[in-house]
Amino acid sequence: MFKFKSISAKLNFILFVTVTIVLSISSIYTYNQYSSQIQKDLDNELNRINKRLELVLPSIIWNLQINLVNEIIKTEANSEIIDSIEVFDIDKTILTSVVKNKHILNLYKNADIKYENEKIATLKIYYNKNKIHEAKEYIINSLIIKVVFILLVLQLIFSYFVNKFIINNITKLKNSIIEMTEKKTFIDDIQINSNDELHYLALEFNKMRNQLKLSWQELHVLNKNLENKVSEEVLKNNEIQKQLFKSEKMASMGEMIGNIAHQWRQPLSVISVLATGIKLRQEMGMTTPQFIDESCDNINTNTQYLSKTIDDFKNFLQGDKVKSRFDLKSQINSFLNIIKSSATQNNVHINIDINDSIYVVGFENELTQCIINIYNNAKDALLENDVEYKLFNITVQEDKEHVKIILQDNAKGIPSHVLPKIFEPYFTTKHQSQGTGLGLHMTYKIIVDGMNGNIEATNNEFIFEDNTFIGACFTILLPKDKSK
Q1: For the chain, what percentages of helix, strand and coil (3-state, to nearest 5) are there?
Q2: Which are the contacts of 279, defined by CB distance < 8 A and separation ≥ 6?
Q3: Which of 203, 287, 331, 367 has the most CB atoms around it within 10 Å of its CB?
């Protein structure tokens, strides 16, 4: 099917088809009339020739004046419609003939020549069929030229008036709509000086344009006010989020201080026992240089452990300001130092599978915060579901482009209705006194926005030490650092 994109093309096509059909029907009728007339004129002419010969030839043939017969039929054969004339005697022997075309013989008349009612010869007249065809072809060509000429003239006249009274006015309307909708400009009222539907359409369009102009002006004012309000609310929301992030961080700090207390008890106890032992032996005169050296070395070892713990917590609580290149294994060891006492106290078995020298670029301490958030959620779920053998597995894999950190627990998984929402801000399944709902949201923001990575959570079934477990699986995908 043809597709026309303009009214002008559609109207011109309709006119073309309509005029073509009308002129074709008229031409066919005219051609049939002319053809019938040509055939009729041919028949009349042949009848006249035949009658003349039937009147003239009998006495001449009877008197055997064959030369005169030949001259007479030559004279009649001069007509363009005659191909040949032949005269036969009663024995079918040719007496004389005039042949103008030997290849095409179209018999018209086979008449008997009688003299005093007695047959003395036979007359055969052949007509020129090509002349009829030529006449008909001439008629067809004339009609075609006539049809084409009339069609072109009508098409030009129709196109002129359609463009003047319809298309130009529609174009004005179209351009006005484009100016108004795309460029947001309001031109002057459209003036269409005609008393037809387009004139009233232009009047209605002008009314609509004026109303729309007022509406856009009001909307512009509303949008401006709304933008100001949105900016204010965004600033307020950012401040609220900062406060909530600080609150989440302070909650982590509180838990970390508890972890420090747990981790310091044993080394402090060892230092206290060693110091008391040295003092007691000195009072009793039982000190030896070897004992003092061993005790001092032991005190120094425990002091270094305390110092390392302080550094781990201090770096974590300060947070990263600038991205840096760091080793994942060292970062995970720092994570273990921070949550060691929590894991021991709650009987959580932590298993790590990581190769040496896997480097990424990002915020090391922020990544530690992310893993701690996921660990804390896993620990709470393990305790809530009263899992007997509590697991938290950390697996690190790598390919040419990415590093994948898989954090898996066996706390029976996350409810299906909760799983799609766990990274949303303020979403929590805990009591308000136990959580803000920002822990995993912070994790998502750090991984995705801060480190150009990705994180997803699923429920996964896995095998560990020949036993099958089900739990939540968090997969963190980070860009791999390729620098040497």
Answers
A1: 60, 20, 20
A2: none
A3: 367
Rounded alpha-carbon distances, angstroms, from residue 276 to 21, 139, 269, 300, 472: 123, 137, 11, 15, 49
Question: Taking Cα atoms as reference points, which of 158, 165, 156, 190 lies closest to residue 175?
Answer: 190
**Cα–Cα distance measured from residue 122 to residue 111, given in angstroms and rounded to the nearest whole number:** 6
pLDDT digits (tens, 9 = 90+) for 18-43: 878 887 888 788 778 877 887 788 77
The SS3 call for residue 413 is coil
Q: Can you read off the two tokens belonging to residue 318?
A: 């300060």
Amino acid 471: pLDDT: 94
Q: Kindly state the tokens that stand for 63.
A: 């008197």
Q: Whole-model pTM? A: 0.44
Q: What is the structure's pLDDT at 95?
A: 85
Q: Count other Cβ atoms within 10 Å, centred on residue 468.
A: 9
C-alpha 19/C-alpha 1 separation (Å) is 20
Q: Which two tokens stand for residue 460?
A: 């996964």
pLDDT tens profile 352-392: 998 877 888 888 878 888 898 899 889 989 999 999 999 99
The two three-digit tokens of residue 204, written as one number: 């209605």
Spatial distance between the Cα atoms of 390 and 277, rounded to a whole number of angstroms? 39
- Closest to 387 (Cα-Cα) out of 344, 349, 351: 349
Please give the Cα distance from 72 to 35 (Å, whole number). 31
Q: Are 8 and 159 in contact (CB under 8 A)?
A: yes
DSSP 180-215: HHTS----PPP----SSHHHHHHHHHHHHHHHHHHH
CA–CA gap between residue 430 and residue 445 (Å, rounded) = 21
Residue 72 structure tokens: 């007479």
CA atoms within a 13 Å half-sphere pointing along the CA-CB vector of 312: 24
Residue at token pair 């989020």: 241
- Cα–Cα distance for residue pair 306/302, rounded to 1 Å: 6
What's the CA gap between 355 and 141, in Å, rounded?
94
Structure tokens at 184: 């947001």
